[in-house]
TrEMBL record, chain A:
Lineage of producing organism: Bacteria, Pseudomonadati, Myxococcota, Polyangia, Nannocystales
Name this polypeptide is given: Carrier domain-containing protein
Top-level taxonomic group: Bacteria
Automatic annotation (TrEMBL), chain B:
Assigned keywords, A-Z: FAD, Flavoprotein, Oxidoreductase
Gene source species: Enhygromyxa salina
Keyword Flavoprotein: yes
Gene3D superfamilies: Acyl-CoA dehydrogenase/oxidase, N-terminal domain, Butyryl-CoA Dehydrogenase, subunit A, domain 2, Butyryl-CoA Dehydrogenase, subunit A, domain 3
EC identifiers of the protein: 1.3.1.95
Essential cofactor(s): FAD
Gene: acrC
Acyl-CoA dehydrogenase/oxidase C-terminal domain mapped to chain residues: 227-373
Family named by the database record: Belongs to the acyl-CoA dehydrogenase family.
Entries under PANTHER family matching the protein: ACYL-COA DEHYDROGENASE, ISOVALERYL-COA DEHYDROGENASE, MITOCHONDRIAL-RELATED
Keyword Transmembrane helix assigned: no
Residue ranges annotated for the Acyl-CoA oxidase/dehydrogenase middle domain, each copy included: 123-215
Protein name: Acryloyl-CoA reductase NADH
Amino acid sequence: MSAEIQAVVRQHLDDEFMFMRPDLVLDDQLDLLGEGILDSIGILRVTAFIEDAFSVVLGPSDLISENFRDLGTIVAVIVAASSRGQADRPAES
Amino acid sequence: MTVSVRSQLQADARRFAAARCNSGLEQLDREQAFNRAGWTAAAEHGLLGMRVPVALGGTARPLGEQLEILLGFGEGCEDNGLILALGAHVWACQSALLDYASDDLKAAVLPGLARGHVIASHAVSEPGAGSDVSNMATRARTTASGYVLDGDKTWVTNAPIAGLHVVFASTDPSAGSRGLSAFVVPAASSGVRVTTIEKMGLCTAQMGSIELREVEVPSRNRLGEEGQGFTILQHCMAWERAFLLAPMLGSMTRVMRRCVEQARRRRQFGQAIGEFDSVSNLIVEMRMRVELGRALLDKVAAQAATGRAFHELASMLKLHISEAWQQTCVDAVQLHGARGFTRELGLERELRDAVGGRIFSGTSEIQRRIIAQLMGVRR
Ligand SMILES: Cc1cc2nc3c(=O)[nH]c(=O)nc-3n(C[C@H](O)[C@H](O)[C@H](O)COP(=O)(O)OP(=O)(O)OC[C@H]3O[C@@H](n4cnc5c(N)ncnc54)[C@H](O)[C@@H]3O)c2cc1C
């Protein structure tokens, strides 16, 4: 499953962010924060994409910048959120 | 929620607010005084605890019910400053605490906030860091038992009457926005000094500057992790932008009703002024703004209720309601002619209040910028 997730997230990062840095190649370890590819707004965009694409909810404890450092970490966060099975967790419904 | 429950919640809140929150408003506005009676009444009606779990002194109402109550409240309550004071307390401060405080800290502070005995302020802006909050100069130095805060916050709603401040400061200046952290600072802490600021509108909401000099804050008062402050701020701002201005849809409805009355009764050139297209069109636009705002509010609420991110929609809603509110008040003054411009009708106060809506929680220009950034149009 994580290979499929990785492919979807990689595609999204390629389409939406990597065009700004044609000098870099996106692999599992590329430091997205350190290279300035994801800033705080970028993290919000990726969060919204993940929640939509994988029907998961990223809670407050997921939303730390370290969780968006590289593709590998992002995939691990999605896998963990999926296994919590908290899609559509009603917050204040 | 059925239609009849919706309208009952709205009607109850409207009646209660009209009966208990408007007394002496003209004088309170002139003297820039806090509407303590209105605050107490709102607390008794449960408005301050709607988001807080029952175990912590709140009523944990579903978001949809909260919004119906707020719409009715906004229609009945003519004191927009009181609405801002309540909004900062609930949407900015309680959001930070509900989602980022430890269980012990929640138990210590949320019951007082839910009952309204303690008022909270959300201290972000600084003289040199308004729109650009990541540039804040307030520092939090680590000590053996926690932190020492130093800096100056300003334009903070509720600061002069608050029992606690939610303060954002940098724990790691070299890390920029990733070095920010958030703290709960009791107003009585040594080294905290608040001065009141007068303003052109929303005058009953007490605004102040907070001086923090060597203020000791224990580690247990930190919200979330060290360095998570900017994420916490974005989270609070999403809730505030989405829902703080919801009552203003009620407020705009009240102002619009007055315009309808005026259009029917005021006669010039031998007919009611509502017969002139340029007058009736103003009222049609008012109605459109309210209805579109309501539809967007429901969309944001539905997204927020799933627990998913709603920052982009929140900025759109904030932008729409704040711009709509100001335009509606400008047009209401125009439609009432000279009487609208005088103090007699209170419409000039509504207009002075509405101007603030385009500045707090991020200006209209900043909301447009955020939406464009979240759409991936610009960096
Ligand atoms: C009624 C009221 C209540 C408030 N309550 C609080 C509170 O409770 N807590 C708190 O911390 N603060 C509060 N504030 C402060 C508020 O958040 C700031 O005023 C606001 O963020 C704007 O900052 P500034 O005033 O420094 O304006 P500046 O940032 O100096 O902006 C000045 C002008 O430049 C424009 N501008 C700035 N940057 C950009 C850009 N990148 N693109 C386009 N235009 C730009 C702005 O839109 C504005 O028109 C409150 C303000 C008001 C009016």
